[in-house]
Amino acid sequence: MQPPDEDLPVIQVSLGEFVLAAEQMFTVPDQLEAFLRFVLAGRLQYHDEHARISINARQGALAPHISKYQLYRDIDSVIGITKDLPFQLHMAIFPLASFRDSLTEDNHLKCPLSSPKGVIGIPLYRIPNMALGKVDRRHITRIFFPRLYHQGQNPAIPPETMTLIYEECLRPAVISLNPVDQSRWPITYSAAMTLYRDHKGRFHFGTIDFPSHLLDQLGSKLLELFQIQDGLQDAFFVHELRGTKGASHHNLHDAEKRRAAFNAVFHLFDMSIIRPEDWVVDIGLEIQHQGCILQWLTKGHRQFFNQVQYRVISEADWNNLVFQRYFPAKGTTAVKALQHFPSASYYRQWQALMARLDEDKATMVQNNQLMQWFNKLYWVPHPESDRMWSTKTGGKEWIPLPFGECGNCPRIAVNPRFHGKDAPRLDEETS
């Protein structure tokens, strides 16, 4: 054994876990040396590797009494599946559907479809769909076409079908109800493609406002026209309002404040035609304890995460992508759809620090001081372009732990400096 201060992976245990492990070693005759090393030196040998034991007396501790902390509720997102357009505000409609606004990620909702085996639930994002329009900055309404779904095939709608949707359904529907806007709608789908593409070939998806008092008729008219087109039958609308976190904080025990928060989020919907059974509301809870911070302990992770998926990041990506997402340089413009980061205390403090420093000092703090600390981390949540924690299922480059079929679980970015060296084994930490 080397001197006692060599760098070893750390395993954090509660006081009870430490005592239990020590008792088990003490009762086994050939484990006496391991017992002494464990209780006197804080060392543990597992799988021919050595680790340092760190006792956290707070791990597994009881939560404070309910009277000593504050519990708030927040409406994070709202999703509705309907056969109408239940809005009381005007809708900005895409003549040329924005490709990037199609649903391509799992939102955990399924659509019942008939099959030779009976009725099965198909995740919504696997059903061909297109963006119809927006009623609010954080809102999107999409049209789904279940008859176009084929197992194992790309859910993207082919160009010829998009042409059919525009020329035989979308344009005729809006013009029949609001003929004054006829000149604003390109005559053909190819004309729309030309109109919304710049000279470099890039698309700029514009919208045309449609009046609120005609939206209920537009929904019915669209479904009527879809019904007579082969492959477009049984279409339905999905309305998604996301990223509202922080706008509807309220005391969950106060009925009046619950109602006010609900009304604030649903202000764009016509509640007279809303059917509650068509909607799913994602509720978030926020716990605050005066003078304390929330700690995520290893023991707690095992209760929340049953599986993770990890990827060993290249050194260039760890430095230029991962690090820069967590600690952006001074003057970096934040993505509008950014989630999780703006709510993190460290992130707000980092932005405040960057604002106080001049360019040279900010660069020195970021690259010379903070980077050295960041490079000592074994792993971090893999940051996406819009969020810190991503749980979508990855491709072949993502390795699930425990091994097996991978569901929706946190993505982990592994520091390449420690992979295969003296870092804790991921399968031990997540088992």
Which secondary structure elements does this structure contain, and how are they paired or packed?
Elements lengths: L9 E4 L1 H12 L5 H10 L1 E4 L2 E7 L14 E13 L8 E3 L16 E6 L2 E6 L5 E6 L4 E6 L14 H19 L11 H7 L12 E3 L4 H13 L8 E6 L8 E2 L3 H11 L13 E10 L9 H7 L3 E5 L2 H12 L18 H12 L2 H16 L4 E3 L17 E3 L9 E4 L11 H5 L1
Parallel strand pairs: 1-3, 14-17
Antiparallel strand pairs: 2-3, 4-11, 4-12, 4-13, 5-8, 5-10, 6-7, 8-9, 9-11, 14-16, 15-17
Describe, in plain words, how this protein is organized in 3D.
This protein is of the alpha+beta class. The protein has three domains: 1-69, no CATH class; 72-285, no CATH class; 305-430, no CATH class. The chain contains eleven helices and 17 strands. It has helices spanning 15-26, 32-41, 159-177, 189-195, 215-227, 255-265, 298-304, 315-326, 345-356, 359-374, 426-430, and strands spanning 10-13, 43-46, 49-55, 70-82, 91-93, 110-115, 118-123, 129-134, 139-144, 208-210, 236-241, 250-251, 279-288, 308-312, 379-381, 399-401, 411-414. The strands form four sheets. Strands 4, 5, 8, 9, 10, 11, 12 and 13 form an eight-stranded antiparallel sheet that branches. Helix 1 runs antiparallel to helix 2 (32-41) and helix 3 packs across helix 5 (215-227). The chain is elongated. Mean pLDDT is 84; it is low at 422-431.
Helix proportion range = 25-40%
Sheet with most strands? 8 strands, antiparallel
> Rg to the nearest angstrom?
27 Å
Helix count, DSSP H or I runs of 4 or more residues: 11
Number of structural units classed as domains: 3
- Sequence of secondary-structure elements: EHHEEEEEEEEHHEHEEHEHEHHHEEEH
- What is the terminal separation in angstroms? 27 Å
Q: Summarize model confidence as the mean pLDDT.
A: 84
